[in-house]
Amino acid sequence: MADQLVDVDTASVRTDLGSTLEECIRALAARLAGTGRLADPEVYVADVLAREAQGATALPGGVALPHARSTAVLVPTVAVASLPTEVTAPNGETFDLVFLLGVPADAADQYLQLLRKVTTAVVRPGFREDCRGAETPERLAALAAGAVAGR
Q1: 2-148 CATH fold
Q2: What is the pLDDT at residue 146?
Q3: What is residue 125's predicted lDDT score, i.e. its pLDDT?
Q4: Measured CA distances, 38 to 33, 45, 61, 65, 126 (Å)
Q5: Angle at 133 between CA 88 and CA 58, to 5 degrees
Q6: Do the strands 67-70 and 77-88 form a parallel or antiparallel pair, or are they unpaired?
Q7: Which residues fall within 8 angstroms of residue 9, CB to CB, at 6 or more apart?
Q8: Is the Cα torsion angle 22, 28, 34, 39 positive or negative in sign?
Q9: Does residue 53 surpass a pLDDT of 60?
């Protein structure tokens, strides 16, 4: 399951994805679309931003966890990025790690499971530091896959 959700092509190491959470979401959504995981990146981004408006997903510890169920998501997926500099989210939290989660609109149970697993991983300081220390997209994708697998 984890290998299907996380793809090295949607992992980004120390790449500038923008200066706002929305820009980071858009950049990662473009990567997801490029791998055929999204039918329409604009619809997905709108769904993520609508979810974000309900409650900010930038967490203490430098992690943003934007997510949404969306009709634009073809297969459940996780995009992950470590950023070269911190970005300040609308809620005032700063982040340098982003985990963008997408699940088809009709997959509520899978959505909650995926969100729980990734949230459990990102609250562990060692996991965050491992992600920040990842030198390659392959390593970052492997760490994210481990989080999705519940390891």
Answers
A1: Mannitol-specific EII; Chain A (3.40.930)
A2: 87
A3: 78
A4: 5, 10, 29, 18, 31
A5: 25
A6: unpaired
A7: 31, 34, 35, 137
A8: negative
A9: yes
